[in-house]
Amino acid sequence: xxxxxxxxxxxxxxxxxxxxxxxxxxxxxxxxxxxxxxxxxxxxxxxxxxxxxxxxxxxxxxxxxxxxxxxxxxxxxxxxxxxxxxxxxxxxxxxxxxxxxxxxxxxxxxxxxxxxxxxxxxxxxxxxxxxxxxxxxxxxxxxxxxxxxxxxxxxxxxxxxxxxxxxxxxxxxxxxxxxxxxxxxxxxxxxxxxxxxxxxxxxxxxxxxxxxxxxxxxxxxxxxxxxxxxxxxxxxxxxxxxxxxxxxxxxxxxxxxxxxxxxxxxxxxxxxxxxxxxxxxxxxxxxxxxxxxxxxxxxxxxxxxxxxxxxxxxxxxxxxxxxxxxxxxxxxxxxxxxxxxxxxxxxxxxxxxxxxxxxxxxxxxxxxxxxxxxxxxxxxxxxxxxxxxxxxxxxxxxxxxxxxxxxxxxxxxxxxxxxxxxxxxxxxxxxxxxxxxxxxxxxxxxxxxxxxxxxxxxxxxxxxxxx
Length: 467
Hints:
Layout: E1 13-18, E2 24-28, H1 30-35, E3 46-48, H2 50-53, E4 60-63, E5 68-71, H3 72-91, E6 99-104, H4 110-122, E7 126-132, H5 133-138, E8 152-159, E9 164-173, E10 177-187, H6 191-206, H7 208-216, H8 224-241, E11 248-254, E12 261-267, H9 268-277, H10 280-293, E13 304-308, H11 315-325, H12 344-358, E14 362-365, E15 371-376, E16 379-384, E17 394-397, H13 401-405, E18 410-416, E19 423-424, E20 431-437, E21 445-446, E22 449-456, E23 460-466
Parallel strand pairs: 6-7, 8-13, 10-14, 17-23
Antiparallel strand pairs: 1-2, 1-3, 4-5, 8-9, 9-10, 11-12, 15-16, 15-18, 16-19, 18-20, 21-22, 22-23
Helix pairs in contact: 3-4, 6-8
């Protein structure tokens, strides 16, 4: 993508609409979102939050206007194709001339990454590489990479609609600039989950009678129109409350079925209580602890904390960063988001590609974390939390050889979203399967243990000694 369009943000929504003449019209982003406001448009023809659905093995959706079901890859391909056509018009180029950097959450699985890559390729886009979102966001801060800047240890706190992603990076300036990603961690929780909790735990209880009236007038399939409108109520209340200093906020709208106007209120205290009930402080602090456990640095060595993403703009989460790192490193009262911060990940990805292709004075080292351990039945026990630090190709892991000989076990590579003794495989906040390593005792066996080799994308071979 050209750097002169790096601030062109497309919301993650697609609508399979019909024109007055009865022809299919596929709309993405703002066009889809604006059309869904029309009371005559059935939201069953729309799909939102496609990133989450890419993780689901069998997900598909029946689209009434198509009279057939679409797979998640087909829908993602249509989104990529729409973006490609939009860019071709802006840049006056062909699809073959577009080169893309795809960014994904830290906690995305191999399945999600492969599906995103395949969808982009099916749409005719040339994919240069896939990197994590917080790593991409770093490159939107151009002054950090200036050769005259100070060395920095940076924590990127990227809290968006679907996930919370962290990246710990070290930037050093010598004859050339070195950017090294030391660790990353992610949580499958974001603004979508907060919106759902606002509705189910606050709005639905406070306004049960009004919601019953609203739903009684909805004749769409599964009350789809009302569900869509009520979700928007929760989103609007959240965004209005945390962009304002007031202790409470009101939001009203006229609903599709009855044509009646209803008003709702959300207070700051209700939101604080909700976050406390969901134990978000502990979850975020545990994730930050996990980030530092992967490397030799500790939180006191951080020189810069940089929040990104819409959800991170909520003052509650900014205050947590101040509590964790201290006001001398990050002061939530002094921090202000820039107007275009929502597009920072995209802008950073564009600059990352430009540096890779054109700037020989900046060396970039990045990695995607994994967990390695033993899987048995439904559960997975971790033994290593991430790839070894750059430059170290051997990792010793304490593991009983008897476990490896047991035919019920296999050595597996997983991406894990939570730090518990036994993670449920493919469960909510569990471990997502990436691949396995076949145990071959003939490869290497001594008093030190068993040497295994695993092929890694872009990194040659990682040798792991089980001892």
